[in-house]
Amino acid sequence: GQQVMQIPQYQHVQEGEDFTTYCNSSTTLSNIQWYKQRPGGHPVFLIQLVKSGEVKKQKRLTFQFGEAKKNSSLHITATQTTDVGTYFCAGRGSNYKLTFGKGTLLTVNP
Amino acid sequence: DVKVTQSSRYLVKRTGEKVFLECVQDMDHENMFWYRQDPGLGLRLIYFSYDVKMKEKGDIPEGYSVSREKKERFSLILESASTNQTSMYLCASSPTWDLTGTGRRPQHFGDGTRLSIL
After folding, report:
1. How far from B15 is each of A101, B60, B73, B115, CA to CA, in Å?
2. Please, which residues have CB within 8 angstroms of residue B62's CB and are 6 or more apart in sequence?
3. CA nearest to A4, candidates A84, A76, A69
4. Which member of A31, A94, A99 has the closest CB to residue B102?
5. Cα of B100 to nearest chain A Cα, Å
6. Residues A28-63: pLDDT tens digits?
């Protein structure tokens, strides 16, 4: 079945440093979604990417969808303590089921 | 704003018990999901439902069943609880699939139920 690999599993940064998490799918995706889960909270939808090569920005967050629609990345510029949490990608394949990556836990040292 | 409510935040049960986890959403969403979340394993789909009385197995359905008698309510049932089912259980809902595959249909999650099986 469809698998979505996400790396790294953990990332610790100093406040102000950049952060990137990567997702790779074993199959071509129709779209990919990104979620953020704060410590003790539940996943919250951030964004959806649909088109090949698409790039979207939300303030300091930049999301990319690969040309082959099999990989994606989330980049945070100049991290802040409020960015702490686990970031998940979730890919939708041809059967419309979302498959989540295992997530990247980001911790930020103030 | 979408509200997904799970009946319990914390639950402790004993091995062999039949356990019911309830989830209610207030946005008339057609699709509802049950996931379990374990450290290092991310979110794994147990079952989902795309309509009343309809259900489909996810990636790890063994030991679980579900019930969807009303559109707003989706129940997860552990037929005979075992210690390896100790986990955080998350319910989610989303509106109807976009058949073109390009619809923006995020999943909305409840706060989760932390279930301990002793």
Report:
1. 30, 19, 26, 12
2. none
3. A69
4. A31
5. 9
6. 998 899 999 999 999 999 999 999 999 999 999 999
